[in-house]
Amino acid sequence: VLWAASCDRFLMEVCVDSVESAINAERGGAGRIELCSSLLEGGITPSIGLLQVVKENVQIPVYVMIRPRGGDFLYTDREVEVMRRDVELMKIHRADGLVLGALTEDGRVDAELCMELLAVCRPLPVTFHRAFDMVHDPSVALETLVSLGFERILTSGCDSSALEGLPLIKRLVEQAKGRIIIMPGGGITERNLQRILEGSGAQEFHCSARSGKDSAMKFRNSSVNMGASLSAPEYSLKVADVAKVRTLNAIAKNTL
Length: 256
Fold this sequence. Notes:
Largest sheet: 8 strands, parallel
Helix content: 25-40%
Radius of gyration: 18 Å
C-alpha cells in the first residue's frame, strides 16, 4: 500500500535528480517530487528520459524544474525559447506541475516573462523556485507572484538556509494569507524541521534527504575529474535516503 501523501497536515516535497531518489522519496512518504538534473548546481532542467522513467516508477505528483543553466535567473531571449520548448515537452511527457522563475536585472520578478511562460504551462500548476531568494524586495515579489497565478513559492527566506531565513518565511506565510503556498526549503534536516514548521506556520516543506553512496566502480582513475575543480567527487553519489525521508515525515506528523 502506498503511503498517504505525506501526512494529513504537512506535505513533504523531495527534490531528486535520479530515478532511484524518486522511488526512495515515494517509499519514505513524500507527497511530491521536484525533478531536476544536477542538484549540485541547485537543479537544472532534467532530460525527457529521466521524466519518463520516473513517471513509470512513482505515483506521487512529479513537478519538473525548468531552468536552462545554473547561475543567475536573468535569461536571454534564446534561453527563454529553450524554456518554452522544455515546458511544452514536459507537458507532453506527463509532468504534473512545473517549477520555474525569472528575475529582471534589478532583482524584481520578471512579470512579463513569467506571464509568458505561465501561459505555456497552463493548465499545469507552477511553483516559483528559489530565484525568489535573490529578489530585492520579497514582500513586493510575493504580491507579484500572487497576481501572476503561481501556486507556490519555494524559499529559504532569502537567506543561506530556511533556518536562517525563518523570520522572513513566517512573515511571508502571514502576508500570503492562503493566496499562495509558501514552501520553506534550503538546508532542511531532521535536526531543524520541527523548528522550521512550528516557527513558520508553513504547511509544505522541501528537502533533498540525501546521503552519500559510494560508486560501484572497481577500477578508478584518480587523476581525472569530469567537471570543474568545484565539481562533486567523481566516485561518490548522493541519493535520497528512504530512512531520512521517513524520519522527516515522522517529524512533520508529530509537529503541532
